[in-house]
Design goal:
single chain; about 160 residues; 6-stranded antiparallel β-sheet; two-stranded antiparallel ribbon
């Protein structure tokens, strides 16, 4: 069965996208959280820890803020029994969502992730992080044993 909640936010057609300033401190913090999330994936066991380099943020390549469009944020109800009219109300509060593309060092990996900045300024990184450039032979030391970590691992030797 298919549920709407199974669709990542950045695929929703009812969103409006606005370019965000890549030097905004909120974006920089979020980018560092993306790198932390990547490094966590290559630290889940001793073999990955010993094999893969810890990455650092080299640069924020792009940032896009997305939010529901006006009609989605103000939708209240529909009148199914009568004229099938649509009722709108006050705008619903929305967390700040961003799609951020970063480059890491060493290895120049490029990653794209969706993050949410909560009202209390905590940052949640969507676990579905994409590698947007090829990793080639960078993960050769773990490719057979830990294929799921290939896009995140740059071998130490």
């Amino acid at each position: 069965m298919f549920f709407v909640s199974d669709i990542d936010e950045h695929w929703c057609p009812c969103l409006k996208f606005n370019i965000a300033n890549t030097s905004d401190p909120k974006i920089t913090r979020a980018a560092k959280e993306i790198v932390r999330s990547i490094n966590n994936r290559t630290s889940i066991n001793r073999i990955l820890q010993k094999s893969c380099v810890r990455l650092s943020l080299k640069s924020v390549l792009s940032a896009v803020k997305f939010e529901p469009n006006e009609k989605v944020q103000t939708f209240s109800s529909t009148n199914q029994d009568g004229d099938r009219g649509v009722n709108f109300g006050d705008r619903t509060p929305d967390n700040k969502h961003f799609q951020i593309t970063i480059q890491t060092s060493p290895g120049d990996g490029r990653f794209e992730a969706t993050v949410t900045v909560e009202d209390n300024d905590s940052i949640i990184v969507n676990p579905n992080i994409s590698r947007t450039n090829t990793y080639g032979s960078q993960p050769k030391c773990i490719v057979r044993k830990y294929p799921y970590a290939r896009k995140f691992c740059l071998c130490k030797t």
